[in-house]
Amino acid sequence: MNATTAPLAGIAAGAGDAEAVLDGFIAWSAGRGMPLYPAQEEAVLALVSGEHVVLSTPTGTGKSLVAAAAHLAALAEGAAASTPRRSRRS
């Protein structure tokens, strides 16, 4: 399996640094017919470098793909979960 056909979590497991995570994510998304727009690539680079990102772009410009990259960055850093969880109220 290569980066274009591997599951997203598999890319995180094989990545050693921010550049490898970025390259793996770019290859993964392009291999699925979703090449990154410049704003997406800039945001993903910031995320895998450990920076916080606020992405304000029009509907349909790939914010969800950037969110997937945030999960990948968290997995690459060894996080078990990368989103807040809501507590259930009785």
UniProtKB/TrEMBL annotation:
This protein is called DEAD/DEAH-box helicase domain-containing protein
GO molecular-function term, one example from the UniProt record:
ATP binding
* SUPFAM superfamilies in UniProt: P-loop containing nucleoside triphosphate hydrolases
Gene source species = Arenivirga flava
Q: Which residue range or ranges hold the DEAD/DEAH-box helicase domain?
A: 37-77
